[in-house]
Every structure is written in structure tokens, then in C-alpha cells.
């Protein structure tokens, strides 16, 4: 029952259209410039809101490799966000080392160890069963975090002290100066670097084989695509990205807590991806930004922000399956064809 | 039969689904330069034979050798990169990938790029070369950047076959490649297939076909199947002179088919 | 001896509540292949409506021993929410699973805040109504009579559903539509009407379950979200879409939790997920499942 | 500031004035030059949904009442006080809202927080952001060493184990001799674990070595406790210790009663008082050790302030307040005392956060539960209330037959000692209760 997401016009643009390439580059440069200048322009608070945005952007780039490009919907991906945060916190607690680079390595290492067996197992399934299996693993880890108090600090979680960046300790800066300053730029570079890597992966032969396994697994097998292998690799890569996102979230909160792995957070990850549009490479990143700003704005206006988020998601799913970026794409398409005729 | 280069040999293969005997003790051999057609009524076991030969299904008994190695049940993904490819009866393509991308899937398997996750696919000279050459051979060049979803049925069928050819196979198994194509340009399609197999170095072709006109025109040898058994395995001219076999395959009182 | 019986009975009771949550979920998936993440929220809605109606009825002089009837009415009335919900979900019938799951996920968010808006944030409960039926003690095991009644009701639900699906005309139509939507339509079954009926029946099973179980526990806003995971464990174990699977699955989860609690309390919840994973790996379609991985 | 921020502020002001009842129209006091019209803003972080909703809401109501009363007497240092209330949910969201209160709402101080996870994350943040932060709850003394050891800006709440120490001492005094089989049904997180271990440590300290027939950990928010009860029934304990205090406690007692557990087992609920109105006489036996932490609404010797607050609360909300109200009011009162002490030292300039922080420790402050003060290590000393439950009252829920008061100076760890060492060495002057014949338990 290969239920790849194909019935909708999947407009993952083919990498070759050069004319389109230039447009893409402009968007990229404006993205970099805007975010590089933001700390000077926007108030501290909204900058500290952008840190979770960077974390989710990285997590969703990984998640969409699995969902948009691989056609596999995981409902337990928040598991790896928690793995990242806890790996960093455990490193700091047990070894006293607080270098951010080491935390990232610990997170990636832990994610690799945990994701590989799950990937080998989960790559046998698609559709509902893949979703249920990942949900079950997510909740297993959540329960483990809550239950094994002496290892994981139980419900209270583990503290995550402020890390040093490239060995530099920003002792003097207060919390906002640190987050809105050096940490902000470090994360921006991380997002751009990991984004570039993911762009290369998605446009590589491996990426093409993954998309082929999404659209038609039997035909792909006959053209030499190792379907289970490409899916397993996609799962592991998405787990690594999730863990890196988890470390950033952990540092932003100053704590790694079990709530990170709760299945509803996995649901929010899917929400952001569909909100931004999973057909586009940049879609999920847009979705993360819009979700964070929407949630923040709604929660100032009313206590019932979940209701409005739910309504937005319902409208999205029914009326705008392509998400925001899908909407842009069809708008541009309409303009271009109207112009051309 | 000369034995200068035995490519594909099936020895006593049968395939049972419970007590249904889809294939019953079939032997088959294929050498360089041959164009073997497999004919017979529906349910004769033609498609099952192709599935077993291409490693999709494990034969219940018997052995399949490809260029000397036992490939029974090895799996299609291995065979694809060591010279045995197939196309499907129903056009089997990637709806959301363009013609270029579909051919590039086979090209990257052929060039052993399967695991390279960092190389920019479309900027890769060799891949681009194969894509251009195969598209050219199958007259798909104008549609290179069109998604398979937007192609008419006949074009999709060609893409299905083209993507198999792009693996540069030694042997290719085609399952009614001209199905759904108007009778007028069926021969056009066959000509394209033959010229493409020359340019891409295909050494032998197995064709599962109903249209006896095509079979008589292009085959070097014809195998007739009935109820899972091989009832004939003759060079083309001998096949059409053998009344008894022809009557089973084409049915009683068929017009006498003149062989070109 | 009595302690083992005690624990088993508690396990069976927990199984009964689990079956009431999952019966509707299984029915909807079996016929419509829709996995309703919001099954917990619908169960919670039934619970809250049950509390309001019962408190109102008792305040207006209803004799206490009649409260189960009020709960029954509350469950049936709030089950009608299925009609508008089906209309909403109808727009994604032909879309891939991802979108159906996401739409029901949005329902969870919406329901949680709707319930908060109408019933407030504090947990609600019917203080000790179950005691109106006192307790039964047999062989040293004392248990509120209402709990036994609830187990009986769950068994009744199971038998009734099986009878309905197998013996009645409209039940057969459901199963035909479940087998294959196209042939169903070919046999002059108005598939659209069947879907409305199945979905509403599914939600009503959920709200009835919520209403009937609520006197033994309390209703909180997080109820809808917490229940989903255990309900999934049950239908994965039992097999997607099969009613027999829901019964067996509920029994396994209920009893295992009770035993785990007694033997080694630490792993009580972990045991459930471990079983679910074992089943998903060993036999993905579950014990009685029809749908292949 | 964007439109939405202004609307929240207006809504908060109205709510505060409304709750305070009549605003005394004594005209403007002589406000020192610096006060101008800029109100003093206090950010509040408290849970409002889920199982902790009842507890968070009670704290919010108390601080609103306190602020209205303050404003009626000219506010703090002449400046009117304004509350900006945000919801405490998961650590991640709550930390984001904490930063929002400081950066966007420009609050002068932040009070509240109940979950230990959030308070762990908040400790370094409060110090780094130099914001006076006063916790209502969420501090476990065992957890103190993980947080910032000598905080400058963070003021913690009374250690959660204090209630457990007091309840354990009372259990030793009353039933010491008879405790054979004990069972623990505790909340499955930091607070629950440390409370249970404290109880066992104190029993051992007094030479009581009971066998633990059942040790259960209940996840927050689980309402279906039938299996837990069944296991307890099978274990047949003669004493059940439970640190549950969310909405699951009344459910637990109700199901325990239905299963006949309340007939022969003694119960010790160190913080059960927070659910007092839900512990109905039908299913809650008499003679149960019930802890009310730092506030008992029906204390006959209660202060005038306490009586006035309880009367207002019962009239307005038709419910009875519990200790979270006292914790909220106590933080507000201590903050006011700190600001005014700093102001008296330097009258013509509004004190900075660090000046206020330094001025808070040591001030004797009257709170709803009596006099309390903040120790130099930023942990408060307050009076704790516990007793045995009784049905002899005109409510439908149990209250305390005899109110037992102890000061935190005796039952709370002093600054310099490590918690478990202190517990081991402390001399609590309590004799082990002799077994008093057959143990007749009056029917509920």
C-alpha cells in the first residue's frame, strides 16, 4: 500500500530550470541579508523568538527530507529534538564541558545511535503504519524520560547551562544579549550551512532515488533504487537535523525536559511543514517562521490560541494543501501564464 | 543454436501459487543478437515468466542463470545494475518527476552514483550525456522538463521503456511495449526500440507480445506458452510453418500470415 | 488469591473503558480508512456533557439511581457532533493519509479549547455518584457495583456491534463499503449516506463511552490527548479496522497494565509501548488486522 | 507597542481594580517627584489549564486581591501596581513568556511558577536578566543544589519537603509503634520522589523499619487509578503515604474508599490540604494526617488579614482558598517590604532591581498564614499548618480537628547544610508514639 503523496500536483521544481535558479538565489540572498540585519532593527524580544525559529527550521529541513521528498509521514519526530537537548544537557552535567560544538557532536552522536535501529525497522513501512510506529517510539522515549528519574531528571528535566561558542565564554552578556547577539548569529550560520547541505543532498543522485522511491517503489527498484536503504538514510539524516534543532531549543530554554518528546509536538512539526508547504524546499522553513509568529501573536490576544491554530490548520488542509509556498508558486504560475498568453 | 555467447538461461523453472501452476518446467535460453518473442493466450504465464527471469519472484523449482551467475530471486535492484532490465505492461513511471529526472534515476544507478549524496546531479556531465542520448533515441527530447503526470499515455509508455534502456542493460525484457499505441505507429515504436538498443549496446531482447504482425516482423525466435508450459521454441520461419502451434496461438482459421 | 482476582478485575475494568474509547475509532477506520486522532477529544466531549447534564438533572430532583440513564442521553446527544464533523472530513476523503491525520489533529486543538471555553479549565467530576450503587464484595474482592455495570455495558456494546455488523442489513452494507468503496457504489449503496452514518455512529460510541465512564474518574482538558496514545496501542495490537481486534487489544492492554503495576510499577506505561512495538515489528497488521503494511 | 499589547494591559488594570472592591477615595497622597505616573508592573506566571488549574487560579486571585488592597493604600512607594498575567505551561513556552514579560511588557518583577522543571530553567535566567523573581512553589531543597547556589535576584519558595518532614514527624508521634506495612502512592516527579524518600528517612531516623508493600508512581494527570487501588488492596498496607495534590487526589481517596481501603489503613497526605474542598466527608475518613502547608483557612487564631481575605474569597468564588493563595500574597508582601526598605535608604530615586533584591531578606512580613521572613539564602521561613481530619464541621468536606503549627525554623534545612545530612542529624524532639491497644477506626 504505497501511499506516497502524489495525487496532489507535487511541484518540487526540477533543479535544472536555470531561469528559476536566479529567482531562487535572489530569495536566498534577501533571506540572509534580512536575518543578518534583524538584531539591529527589531527589538530584543522578537530576536529571542527567532532562536526557536532557527531550531525548528533545521529540524523541519530534516523532517521534510523524510516527508516531502521521501513520502514518509513520521508522527514521532519530536523524539529526536528531545534526544538532542538531553544529549547536550547530559554532556554538560556529567563532564562539565559546555562547549556548544561538543554539545552538537553529542547530540548528533546520540541521534545516530538511537535513529539507526529505528530507521532499519521503520523503512519497511509506509503510510499509516510508518506514522503509528514512529508515534509509538516517540511515546516510548517520552515515558523513559519521565520515568528514569535518576538518569533523566524525570519530569523536571536536566538543566542546560549557557554554552561557550567556539570556545569563547560570553560571561558578561546577560541572557538576552547572549541569545540576541552571538548565539543568534551562530544559529543563523548553522541554518544556512545545514540548509546548503540539505539542498545539495536533495539535488544529488541520492535525493533523486529518494523521490523515485516516494513516487513508485516497484518501478524504482527496477531502476536500481535500493528503496529501503534510501528511506533508512533519509530517516537517520532527519534524526540528526532534529537533534541539532533540539540542542538549540535546549540552550534557548536552558533546560531539556520530557515535554519536548510529547507526541503533540510531533504533530506541531507536521503542522509547520504543511503550513509552509512541503512541496517546496524552503516551504517548511517559512512554515516554522509563520507558526512561531502566529502562536506568539495569538497567545498575547487570547488564552485560546490552540483553537485558532486548529482552525488555521483545518483551513490549510482543506483549502490550501500546497501551504504558503504552494500558494506563492501557483500565484506566480498564474501570473506567468496570464502574462505569456 | 550457436552458443557463441549465452546471456540468459532458465533451467526447468516453475512457479506455483498454492496449487495453481503458473509456470511448469520451462527452459529458455537467450544469446547475443537474439530477439525472442514470447507469445500465448492470456494467463499462459508470460508475465510470471518475466517476473521470475527479472528476479521479482523466486521460482518454486529450477534455476535462472544470467551471464553464468545464478540469479534466482536475487531481486530486481541488483539485476538492474548488472545488465538485466525490464519495462512494464502498464506504464510504470514517477508521476511527480520530469522525463529528465526519470531517465537520470537509471543513469545514476548505471554510473554507480547511487550513494553519492553531494554531487549535483544535473551538473554531472556523464548523467546529462546519457539523459540526452536516451531522450534522443526515444524522441522524448521536447518533453525533458515535463512531469510524467502531464504526458499522454503513449508517451508515458515510451518513458517507461526508455528509463529501462538507460540502465544500459545487456538484456531487456519488454512486456507489450506498444500496448495502447495506435496500430499506425506501433511499428514506429518498434523501430525506435530497435535503434535505441543498438545505440545503447543492448545485446538481446525478450518481447512479450500479442500482436503477431510485430512478432513475425522482428523476432529471430518465438516461444509459445500455454497454461504455464512451453509448447514451442522455434526460429521464426519454422514457427509460422508449424500449423499446429500457430493454430493454438492465433486460434482456428486464422488468415495465413505471410512472413516478411 | 483474592489479590490476583483484585488486580485482574481492575485490569478488565480498564479494558472495558479502553474498548469504549476504541470501538468508534475502529469502526470509522474499518469502513472509511480514516484514523481519527480526535477520538480522545470526542470521548472527552461526551464526559463533559455527561457531567453537566447529570449535575443539572440531580439538581432538579432526579432520583440519584437514575443517573446512568442521564449519562446515556448525554452520550447520544453529544454523539450528533459526528454529522458536522463528517461534513468537514469529507473534503479530505481522497487525500493521502497525511492530510486526514492532520485534519483530525486540528480537531484535537479545536476541541480542547472549546471544552475549556464552555466548561472552564479546572477538572470536573461527579463526586462519588458511583456509590449510589454501593459496592459488591465477592471472594474478598470489593469493587463498586457501577464498575461491574460498566464492564457489562462494554460487553453489551461489543455483542451489539458484532450482531449489528454481521446480522443486520445496514451492518452488511457497512462491511461491503468497507471491503471496497467502488463495488459498494456499484451495488447501489449510497456511499455518501453510509459515511455520514458510520462516522456519526463512531463518534456516538466515543461520546457514550466518555459519558458512562466519567463517574469513576474526572474530566480534564488533557484527557483527549492522553487517551489517543493508549487507544492507538489497543488498535495496533488488535489489528486496524477489526472490532474483534479492539476487544482483544483492550483486554491485553488493560490486564497487562494492571499486572505490570503490581509486579514492577516503574515499567507500567513502558510495558504498553514495548508490546505495541513488538506487534508492529512481528505482525504489523496486528492480531486480526486486514490492512497490510 | 503593537495593538495587542495595549489591549492586554488595559484588561489587566480593570480586572485588578474590580477585584479590589472599593478604592479608597482619600485623594492623592503626596507622591515623591520620581514616582510620576508610571505604574509598577508585576508579571505573573501561573498554570491555568489542566490538573494544576485549581492551584494556579487560587494564587492569581490572591495576588489580585493583594494588589487591589495595596493600590487602595497608595500602591508601593506611591506607585500604583499593575499585574501582567501569563500562563505557565511547558518549560519552553514558559521561559519564552518570562522573556516576553521582561522585554515587551517591561515588568519590574516576576512572581509565580509552580513546576520544578520551569523553576530549574528559570534560576539561571533570573540571575542573567537581573530581574527580581519570586517563586510561589516548585522548589525542592534536594533540587536546590542544581540551581544557582547563591542567587542574587531569585527568591525561592519554602522547600516542598517541609510539609513531608512535618507530616512524617506527626505520623511517627501518632502511629510510630504500629507501622508495619506501608505503601507509597506518589506523584511521579522530583517533588513526589523527594517527599517519599524524606518519609522513609525520618522513619529510619526514629528506628522504625517498616516493610514497603507497594511503591507506586502516578504520572501527573492520570485519573484512572482503579489498577493502583487494586494493587494497594492486594498489598494490605496499614499506612498509605501519598504526596498527590492535584485533582487526582480526591479521585484516589474516592476510589480508595469504594475499595474499602479507608476502613483499616491510616492515610498521610502531607499537602492534601490544597484539595480540601474536594475531600468530601463521604469518602474521606477522620483521623487522616492532612497537611495545609503555609495556610489553613479555618485557623481560629488566624490574623485579621486572613479572616478578611477568606471572607472575600468565599463570597466571590464560593470556594475556600488554600496555601497557594498565601504563597502568592507572601511574595507580593515581601516585594513591597523590600522596595520600601530600599526607598527609605535612598528616598529620592527609585531603587534598582539589585537594590530591591538586597533589601528583601530579613524583613518580618505579615502574610495570610502569619508572620514570615526571607532568609539570606533566599529561602523563606513561614509557619506550617497540619492536623488530623474531622467531620465535625458544617461543610461537606473534612477540616482539621486540631491545628498543629510548626515554624520552618525547626523543620526546614538551614542554609549551610546539605539536605540529607541535615535530616539525619536534626533533633526534632519527637517521641515515637506507643501502640495504643486495638486500633479502632471510627466509621466515616
Which labels suit this protein?
heterotetramer; A: 341 residues; mainly alpha; two-stranded antiparallel sheet; 14 helices; 2 strands; disordered N terminus; B: 260 residues; alpha/beta; Rossmann fold; 6-stranded mixed sheet; 4-stranded antiparallel sheet; 9 helices
Task: Present the secondary structure layout.
The complex is a heterotetramer of chains A (about 350), B (about 260), C (about 290) and D (about 450).
Chain B: E1 6-17, E2 20-31, E3 35-39, H1 46-53, E4 61-66, E5 69-70, H2 76-80, E6 84-86, H3 99-110, H4 125-137, H5 153-165, E7 171-175, H6 186-199, E8 204-208, H7 212-218, E9 221-226, E10 229-235, H8 236-241, H9 243-250
Parallel strand pairs in B: 3-8, 3-9, 6-7, 7-8
Antiparallel strand pairs in B: 1-2, 1-4, 4-5, 9-10
Chain C: H1 2-32, H2 39-59, H3 67-79, H4 82-90, H5 97-119, E1 135-138, E2 141-144, H6 145-167, H7 169-179, H8 181-186, H9 191-213, H10 223-238, H11 243-263, H12 268-282
Antiparallel strand pairs in C: 1-2
Helix pairs in contact in C: 1-6, 1-9, 1-10, 1-11, 2-3, 2-5, 2-9, 2-10, 3-9, 4-9, 6-7, 10-11, 10-12, 11-12
Chain D: H1 3-19, E1 40-46, H2 53-72, E2 81-87, H3 91-103, E3 109-112, H4 116-129, E4 132-135, H5 141-144, E5 154-155, H6 161-175, E6 181-187, H7 190-205, E7 211-218, H8 226-235, E8 239-241, H9 248-258, H10 261-264, E9 266-269, E10 289-291, H11 304-317, H12 323-345, H13 353-359, E11 365-367, E12 370-374, E13 380-381, E14 383-390, E15 399-407, H14 408-411, H15 419-425
Parallel strand pairs in D: 1-2, 1-3, 3-4, 4-5, 6-7, 6-8, 8-9, 9-10
Antiparallel strand pairs in D: 10-14, 11-12, 12-13, 14-15
Helix pairs in contact in D: 1-2, 2-12, 3-4, 6-7, 12-13
Amino acid at each position: 500500500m504505497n501511499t506516497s503523496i502524489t495525487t496532489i500536483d507535487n511541484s518540487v521544481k526540477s533543479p535544472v530550470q536555470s531561469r528559476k535558479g536566479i529567482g531562487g538565489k535572489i530569495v536566498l540572498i534577501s533571506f540572509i541579508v534580512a536575518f543578518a540585519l534583524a538584531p539591529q532593527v527589531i527589538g530584543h524580544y522578537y530576536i529571542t523568538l527567532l532562536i526557536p525559529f532557527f531550531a525548528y527550521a533545521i529540524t523541519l529541513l530534516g523532517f521534510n527530507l523524510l516527508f516531502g521528498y521521501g513520502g514518509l509521514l513520521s508522527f514521532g519526530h519530536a523524539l529526536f529534538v528531545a534526544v538532542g537537548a538531553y544529549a547536550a544537557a547530559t554532556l554538560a552535567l556529567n563532564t562539565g564541558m559546555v562547549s556548544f560544538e561538543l554539545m552538537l557532536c553529542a547530540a548528533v552522536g546520540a541521534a545516530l545511535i538511537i535513529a539507526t535501529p529505528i530507521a532499519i525497522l521503520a523503512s519497511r513501512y509506509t503510510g499509516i503504519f510508518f506514522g503509528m510506529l514512529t508515534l509509538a517510539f516517540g511515546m516510548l522515549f517520552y515515558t523513559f524520560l519521565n520515568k528514569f528519574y535518576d538518569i533523566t531528571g524525570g519530569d523536571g528535566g536536566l538543566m542546560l547551562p549557557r554554552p561557550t561558542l567556539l570556545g569563547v565564554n560570553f560571561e558578561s552578556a546577560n541572557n538576552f544579549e547572549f541569545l540576541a547577539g552571538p548565539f543568534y548569529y551562530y544559529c543563523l550560520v548553522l541554518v544556512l550551512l545545514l540548509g546548503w547541505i540539505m539542498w545539495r543532498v536533495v539535488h544529488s543522485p541520492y535525493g533523486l532515488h529518494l523521490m523515485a522511491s516516494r513516487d513508485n517503489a516497484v518501478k524504482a527498484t527496477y531502476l536500481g533504487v535500493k528503496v529501503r536503504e534510501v528511506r533508512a538514510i533519509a530517516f537517520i539524516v532527519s534524526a540528526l537535523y532534529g537533534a541539532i534543532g533540539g540542542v538549540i531549543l535546549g540552550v534557548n530554554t536552558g533546560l531539556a525536559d520530557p515535554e519536548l518528546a510529547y507526541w503533540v509536538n510531533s504533530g506541531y512539526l507536521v503542522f509547520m511543514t504543511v503550513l509552509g508547504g512541503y512541496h517546496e524546499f524552503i516551504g517548511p522553513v517559512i512554515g516554522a517562521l509563520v507558526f512561531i509568529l502566529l502562536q506568539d501573536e495569538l497567545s498575547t490576544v487570547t488564552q485560546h490560541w490552540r483553537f485558532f491554530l486548529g482552525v488555521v490548520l483545518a483551513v490549510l488542509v482543506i483549502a490550501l494543501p500546497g501551504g504558503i509556498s504552494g500558494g506563492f508558486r501557483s500565484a506566480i504560475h498564474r501570473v506567468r501564464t496570464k502574462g505569456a498568453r | 543454436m550457436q552458443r557463441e555467447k549465452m546471456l540468459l538461461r532458465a533451467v526447468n523453472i516453475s512457479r506455483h501459487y498454492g496449487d495453481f501452476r503458473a509456470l511448469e518446467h520451462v527452459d529458455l535460453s537467450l544469446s547475443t543478437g537474439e530477439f525472442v518473442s514470447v507469445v500465448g493466450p492470456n494467463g499462459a504465464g508470460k508475465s510470471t515468466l518475466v517476473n521470475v527471469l527479472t528476479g521479482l519472484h523466486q521460482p518454486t523449482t529450477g534455476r535462472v542463470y544470467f551471464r553464468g551467475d545464478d540469479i534466482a530471486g536475487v531481486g530486481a535492484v541488483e539485476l538492474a545494475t548488472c545488465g538485466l532490465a525490464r519495462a512494464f505492461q502498464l506504464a510504470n513511471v514517477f508521476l511527480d518527476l520530469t522525463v529528465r529526472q526519470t531517465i537520470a534515476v537509471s543513469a545514476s544507478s548505471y554510473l554507480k552514483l547511487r550513494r553519492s549524496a553531494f554531487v549535483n546531479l544535473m551538473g554531472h556531465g556523464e548523467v546529462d550525456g546519457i539523459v540526452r542520448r536516451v531522450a534522443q533515441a526515444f524522441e522524448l527530447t521536447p518533453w525533458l522538463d515535463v512531469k510524467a503526470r502531464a504526458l499522454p499515455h503513449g508517451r508515458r509508455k515510451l518513458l517507461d521503456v526508455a528509463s529501462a534502456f538507460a540502465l544500459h542493460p545487456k538484456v531487456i525484457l519488454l512486456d507489450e511495449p506498444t500496448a495502447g499505441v495506435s496500430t499506425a505507429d506501433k511499428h514506429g515504436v518498434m523501430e525506435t526500440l530497435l535503434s535505441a538498443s543498438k545505440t545503447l549496446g543492448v545485446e538481446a531482447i525478450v518481447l512479450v507480445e500479442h500482436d503477431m504482425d510485430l512478432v513475425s516482423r522482428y523476432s529471430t525466435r518465438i516461444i509459445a506458452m500455454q497454461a504455464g508450459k512451453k509448447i514451442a521454441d522455434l526460429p521464426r520461419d519454422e514457427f509460422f510453418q508449424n500449423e499446429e502451434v500457430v493454430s493454438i496461438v492465433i486460434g482456428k482459421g486464422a488468415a495465413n500470415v505471410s512472413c516478411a | 488469591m483474592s489479590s490476583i482476582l483484585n488486580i485482574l478485575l481492575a485490569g478488565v475494568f480498564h479494558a472495558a473503558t479502553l474498548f469504549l474509547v476504541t470501538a468508534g475509532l475502529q469502526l470509522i477506520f474499518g469502513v472509511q480508512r480514516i484514523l481519527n486522532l480526535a477520538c480522545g477529544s470526542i470521548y472527552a466531549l461526551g464526559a463533559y456533557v455527561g457531567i453537566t447534564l447529570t449535575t443539572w438533572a440531580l439538581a432538579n430532583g432526579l432520583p440519584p439511581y437514575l443517573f446512568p440513564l442521564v449519562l446515556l442521553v448525554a452520550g447520544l446527544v453529544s454523539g450528533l457532533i459526528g454529522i458536522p464533523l463528517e461534513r468537514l472530513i469529507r473534503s479530505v476523503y481522497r487525500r493521502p493519509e497525511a492530510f486526514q491525520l492532520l485534519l483530525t489533529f486540528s480537531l484535537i486543538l479545536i476541541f480542547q479549547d472549546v471544552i475549556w471555553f464552555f466548561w472552564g479549565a479546572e477538572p470536573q467530576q461527579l463526586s462519588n455518584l458511583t456509590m449510589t450503587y454501593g459496592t459488591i464484595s465477592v471472594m474478598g474482592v470489593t469493587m463498586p457495583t457501577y464498575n461491574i455495570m460498566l464492564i457489562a455495558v462494554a460487553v453489551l456494546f461489543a455483542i451489539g456491534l458484532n450482531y449489528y455488523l454481521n446480522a443486520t442489513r445496514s451492518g452488511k452494507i457497512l462491511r461491503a463499503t468497507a471491503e471496497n468503496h467502488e463495488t459498494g457504489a456499484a451495488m447501489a449503496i449510497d456511499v455518501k449516506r453510509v459515511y455520514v452514518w458510520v462516522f456519526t455512529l463512531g463518534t456516538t460510541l466515543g461520546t457514550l463511552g466518555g459519558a458512562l465512564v466519567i463517574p469513576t474518574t474526572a474530566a480534564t482538558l488533557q484527557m483527549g490527548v492522553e487517551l489517543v496514545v493508549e487507544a492507538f496501542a489497543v488498535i495496533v495490537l488488535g489489528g486496524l479496522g477489526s472490532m474483534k481486534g479492539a476487544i482483544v487489544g483492550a483486554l491485553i492492554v488493560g490486564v497487562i497494565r494492571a499486572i505490570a503495576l503490581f509486579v514492577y510499577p516503574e515499567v507500567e506505561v513502558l510495558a504498553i509501548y514495548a508490546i505495541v512495538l513488538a506487534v508492529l515489528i512481528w505482525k504489523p497488521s496486528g492480531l486480526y488486522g486486514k490492512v497490510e503494511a | 507597542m503593537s495593538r495587542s499589547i495595549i489591549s492586554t494591559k488595559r484588561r489587566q488594570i480593570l480586572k485588578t481594580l474590580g477585584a479590589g472592591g472599593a478604592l479608597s477615595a482619600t485623594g492623592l497622597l503626596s507622591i515623591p517627584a520620581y514616582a510620576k505616573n508610571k505604574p509598577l508592573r508585576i508579571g505573573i506566571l501561573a498554570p491555568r489549564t489542566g490538573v494544576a488549574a485549581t492551584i494556579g487560579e487560587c494564587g492569581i486571585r490572591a495576588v489580585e486581591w493583594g494588589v487591589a488592597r495595596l493600590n487602595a493604600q497608595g500602591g508601593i512607594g506611591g506607585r500604583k501596581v499593575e499585574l501582567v498575567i501569563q500562563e505557565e505551561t511547558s518549560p519552553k513556552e514558559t521561559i519564552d513568556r518570562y522573556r516576553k514579560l521582561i522585554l515587551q511588557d517591561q515588568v519590574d518583577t516576576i512572581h509565580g511558577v509552580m513546576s520544578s522543571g520551569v523553576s530549574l530553567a528559570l534560576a539561571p535566567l533570573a540571575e542573567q536578566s537581573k530581574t527580581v523573581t519570586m517563586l510561589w512553589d516548585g522548589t525542592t531543597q534536594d533540587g536546590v543544589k542544581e540551581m544557582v547556589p547563591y542567587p542574587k535576584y531569585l527568591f525561592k519558595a519554602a522547600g516542598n519537603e517541609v510539609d513531608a518532614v512535618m507530616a512524617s514527624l506527626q505520623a511517627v508521634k501518632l502511629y510510630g509503634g504500629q507501622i508495619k506495612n506501608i505503601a507509597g502512592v506518589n506523584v511521579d516527579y522530583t517533588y513526589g520522589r523527594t517527599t517519599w524518600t524524606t518519609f522513609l528517612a525520618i522513619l529510619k531516623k526514629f528506628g522504625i523499619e517498616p516493610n514497603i508493600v507497594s511503591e507506586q508512581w502516578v504520572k501527573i494527570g492520570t485519573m484512572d487509578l482503579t489498577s493502583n487501588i487494586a494493587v494497594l488492596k492486594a498489598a494490605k498496607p496499614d499506612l498509605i503515604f501519598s504526596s498527590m495534590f492535584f485533582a487526582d487526589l480526591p479521585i484516589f481517596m474516592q476510589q480508595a474508599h469504594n475499595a474499602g481501603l479507608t476502613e483499616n489503613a491510616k492515610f498521610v497526605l502531607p499537602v492534601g490540604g490544597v484539595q480540601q474542598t474536594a475531600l468530601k466527608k463521604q469518602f474521606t475518613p477522620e483521623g487522616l494526617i492532612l497537611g495545609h502547608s503555609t495556610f489553613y483557612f479555618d485557623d481560629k487564631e488566624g490574623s485579621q488579614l486572613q479572616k478578611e481575605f477568606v471572607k472575600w474569597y468565599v463570597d466571590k468564588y464560593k470556594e475556600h482558598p488554600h496555601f497557594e493563595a498565601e504563597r502568592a500574597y507572601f511574595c507580593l508582601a515581601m516585594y513591597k517590604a523590600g522596595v520600601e526598605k530600599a526607598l527609605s535608604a535612598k528616598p529620592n530615586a527609585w531603587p534598582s532591581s539589585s537594590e530591591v533584591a538586597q533589601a528583601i531578606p530579613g524583613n518580618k512580613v505579615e502574610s495570610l498564614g502569619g508572620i514570615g521572613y526571607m532568609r539570606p539564602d533566599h529561602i523563606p521561613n513561614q509557619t506550617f499548618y497540619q492536623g488530623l481530619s474531622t467531620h465535625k464541621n458544617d461543610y461537606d468536606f473534612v477540616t482539621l480537628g486540631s491545628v498543629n503549627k510548626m515554624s520552618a525554623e525547626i523543620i526546614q534545612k538551614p542554609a549551610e547544610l546539605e539536605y540529607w545530612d541535615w535530616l539525619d542529624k536534626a533533633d526534632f524532639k519527637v517521641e515515637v508514639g506507643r501502640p495504643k491497644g486495638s486500633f479502632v477506626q471510627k466509621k466515616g
